[in-house]
Amino acid sequence: MDRRTFCLALSSLALPAYAAGEGWATRPVKLLVPGGAGGVTDVRARWLAPRLSAVIGQPVVVENRTGAAGLIGMEAGARSDPDGHTIVVVHQGTMVANSYMYASLPYDPLKDFTPLTRMGIGPLVLAVNPSLQAGTVGEFIALAKSRSKPLAFGSPGIGTPPHLAVELFKRHTGIDAIHVPYKGGGAAATDLIGGHIDFEIEGLTVLVPHIKAGRVKGLATSGDARVAVLGELPTIQEAGVRDYSYNGWVGLALPSKTPSPLVASVYRSVAQVLDSPESREYFATAGAIPGAVPPDVFAASIREEHAKLGRVIREAGIKAE
């Protein structure tokens, strides 16, 4: 643990005054991030750490476990003591997509973890290069179907939410498109601006600045409701693609053998942070919907995504490289 992380966890200056925790934490709590620093999961964890610390009266430290697309960190989380003092930061890739992209995993997302809560859920945005002659989703679909050569789309990598969002879009619309994986959302956006790829369905954090600046053209958002930061854009459903919905999320989980009363106590502490006015403002600026959901609701949503996205991954033949 480096000094910066420890100081961040201890600091509660300028943070809202939360109610006292329930006493379940008797020593420092670890937020285990199965990935490197700077990604969405890491950023969310580092935002949560000092605020949760203020609730429970114990330091909350962030530990990054990198490597193998999150497999190393998830295995470590699954093997952690089920005493509430290790909370794993999870997302669609580690809890859903990996199950279908790898021949075997060193963990079982449905058996080795107890989902705790979602931290936030956010739609993506369908954007195209401005030179593409399509100003609406309908025009985009018609153009894609009329081309002799498939359009090219980018994503931060194979099996990432932006990749799966496009594969789901292809399944709903019948268009064909060639996937160009990058090492990050920023690199894909740069090539979208430069015209090296034709479109993306990417996170708002990545694309909204470019849409506002006119460097790319936003057509619609992927969730069930419009988002304030792009309020003029319809959802893909509103634009005529029936039943299409895709949201990215980051959440928290505990080892599966954590006692139910302890799960409930940890959830209540985290919910104090996630249901606060500060949380709503923080997530809104990122185009996400904040707020905690109970463990059983979160678990049910993960099972639903296994059915929905598992089918998409299998039909598209997506495999980890």
What does this structure look like?
The chain has 321 residues and is an alpha/beta fold. It folds into two domains: 3-121 and 248-316, 3-Layer(aba) Sandwich (D-Maltodextrin-Binding Protein, domain 2); 122-230, D-Maltodextrin-Binding Protein, domain 2. The protein is 41% helix and 20% strand. It has eleven helices and ten strands. The chain has helices at residues 3-10, 40-56, 71-78, 92-101, 137-146, 161-173, 185-194, 204-212, 260-274, 277-285, 295-316; strands spanning 29-33, 60-64, 86-91, 113-128, 151-155, 177-181, 199-203, 217-221, 247-255, 289-290. Strands 1, 2, 3, 4, 7, 8, 9 and 10 form an eight-stranded mixed β-sheet that branches. Strand 5, helix 6 and strand 6 (177-181) form a beta-alpha-beta unit. The longest helix is centred in the C-terminal third of the chain and has 22 residues, at 295-316.
Instruction: Give the averaged pLDDT, no decimals.
Output: 90
Classification by helices and strands: alpha/beta
* Basic shape: globular
CATH secondary-structure class of the largest domain = Alpha Beta
Rg (C-alpha, Å): 20 Å
Order of helices and strands: HEHEHEHEHEHEHEHEEHHEH
| CATH H-level superfamily of the largest domain | Bordetella uptake gene, domain 1
